């Protein structure tokens, strides 16, 4: 988790110098983020005994996936905000609103899935 917290500001800072405003590249990064998030969620559903549990490779893989996902999402957010900045203040406002709304809906969805299906089991 600590490395993921470091990845966020590093990738935001990186986006200032290596900016990418091409929609197809941002779309590719979004696709990569979805794949990484899917692997992370799949691994979480296999709890308490996911694949490679108790091995150095498994721990390393999960840490790397979390850092890559956090970095990818941070980089995408900064670049989308810089693209929307050209369209005025309202576009950034609506971007923020929809980002928070999506986060809220995602949290509610995961809560309901966990509550109703017992998909995630405690160790």
Written overview of the protein:
The protein is mainly α. The protein is built from four helices and no strands.
Q: Which descriptor suits the 3D outline?
A: globular
From N to C, what is the helix and strand string?
HHHH
Q: Provide the helix percentage.
A: over 70%
Number of strands: 0
| Cα distance spanning the termini | 19 Å
| Mean pLDDT over the full residue set | 87
Low-confidence stretches: none
The major beta sheet can be summarized as: none
Strand content: under 5%
Number of helical runs?
4
Radius of gyration (CA) equals 17 Å
User: Would you tell me the structural class of the helices and strands?
Assistant: mainly alpha
């Amino acid at each position: 988790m600590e490395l993921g917290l470091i990845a966020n500001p590093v990738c935001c800072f990186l986006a200032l110098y290596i900016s990418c405003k091409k929609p197809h590249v941002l779309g590719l990064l979004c696709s990569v983020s979805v794949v990484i998030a899917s692997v992370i969620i799949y691994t979480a559903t296999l709890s308490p005994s996911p694949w490679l549990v108790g091995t150095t490779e498994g721990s390393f893989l999960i840490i790397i996936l979390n850092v890559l996902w956090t970095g990818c999402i941070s980089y995408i957010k900064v670049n989308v905000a810089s693209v929307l900045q050209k369209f005025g203040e309202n576009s950034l406002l609506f971007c923020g609103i929809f980002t928070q709304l999506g986060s809220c809906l995602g949290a509610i969805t995961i809560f309901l899935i966990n509550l109703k299906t017992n998909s995630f089991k405690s160790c």
